[in-house]
């Protein structure tokens, strides 16, 4: 009996030790993330402090390509194999899969006062979840052009926006072409292969998508004007064909052509500022310039990324603690200042961006001044729940025009049909 009691005692000690070890093992949470610049490094610094204050939680950042977020993450989440949290831009793809943080966070009122209600509402499905909090915007973006100012100086060509508040896309294209020819620069102008990036210039040219009755019309004069300019850039060989034609059907950016000094004017957006500050350095002077002006005014596209949580997580309380930590003003301010993003958080007060790059500082000011000019159509496209249903067909069908597979008339007709089909399918589901 004595021997039996000794064995039993040893078993109890062993079991107790296992329990203690299990309690000391932190919960591991995973974030799927993509970078435009240094965002993951800044996030890691903030999360390191969180882990020091919350030793029961470990947060792993899985950095992937942006295309993987677009193509693979929705499938993973739908299959129940997604991460606990993610940085996303396609808010509609995950509706029905988000974790409602409202009952889990310490102060839901802080969230409501810190972010624009329409932006938080972009994650919601409708009246049935109108009170839900599924995530938060960790950056606000505005699309707009950049120029290589050094090339303008070398060519002796005046930067059009230096002397005029209203410069058309045609005028900018002519100036960029002149600079490219004078400096023997390979390309004059480029725009990312993205329906979102195309939309700002299209709206500026007078394009209209959303009608008063709620319907969508693709074929408007402004749409055709911008599409014809895009085709003309390719026909004339003043834009790198690799971006739209050679991308293999995926999203593609022309950033590398710009940072390598091969491109005079680049239509992209404010998220590139940190990237350019890091890669260009003092190689050449660059500037953000106001969006060109047309019949629709001068507008870019609003945008940004959302940090969201997924309902499939096995650790909702711990996820909420992470998310709550990131929205605290001091942490959100640090993320904004170090990543050189336009702040999406409304409670940050004065922002002191962490950069000595004068081009980056000026670009931030330029993009901030673009925000009041954003059109209602632009906001409706981005946050109205139909962005990807419109942007992807625009991107893909215009590419078919560039490759000679479709005429512009046929492409516009097919975009309209694609959009109608996508919205009808979404309504049924």
Q: Which runs of at least 5 residues are low in confidence (pLDDT < 50)?
A: 1-22
Number of helices: 19
The geometry reads as globular
- Terminal-residue CA separation: 67 Å
Strand fraction:
5-15%
- The count of domains is 2
On the 0-100 scale, what is the average pLDDT? Answer: 92
What does the radius of gyration come to?
Answer: 24 Å
Regarding quaternary structure, what we see is: single chain
How many E-type strands?
Answer: 8
| Highest CATH level, the class of the largest domain | Alpha Beta
List the helices and strands and how they pair.
Elements lengths: L1 H23 L2 E7 L5 H15 L3 E7 L2 H6 L1 H6 L6 E4 L19 H7 L2 H5 L13 E14 H7 L13 H15 L3 E5 L3 H10 L16 H15 L5 H4 L10 H5 L3 E7 L3 H7 L6 E3 L13 E8 L6 H12 L1 H11 L18 H13 L5 H8 L3 H16 L5 H21 L1
Explain what you see.
The protein is an alpha/beta fold and 429 residues long. It has two domains: 27-140 and 303-339, D-Maltodextrin-Binding Protein, domain 2 (3-Layer(aba) Sandwich), CATH 3.40.190.10; 143-302 and 366-428, 3-Layer(aba) Sandwich (D-Maltodextrin-Binding Protein, domain 2). Helix content is 48%, strand content 13%. It has 19 helices and eight strands. Strands 1, 2, 3, 4, 5, 6, 7 and 8 form an eight-stranded mixed β-sheet that branches. The longest helix is centred in the N-terminal third of the chain and has 23 residues, at 2-24. It is globular.
